Request: fold
Amino acid sequence: LNVPPLSTERRKQMASRIKDLAEESRVAIRNVRRDANKSADNAEKDKSMSEDDCKHTKDQIQELTKKYEAIVNERAASKEKEVMEN
Reply:
């Protein structure tokens, strides 16, 4: 099966779609962070978690958020480069 090479216009469309999907992923990650922080705040309010534990939990949540956003950024850049080269 012969598949013709992609046109430059189509490559740009695909790269744009990759950026859109990456942004959707980052928004989803941030939504999870917001929900987790809210849960930690509620646990502190209910006295099932100390203030220090709450702060530590939020710090861990932020670290994970940064880690997974970096993964999304890295993979999006890699895929965009691949689309534009081939």
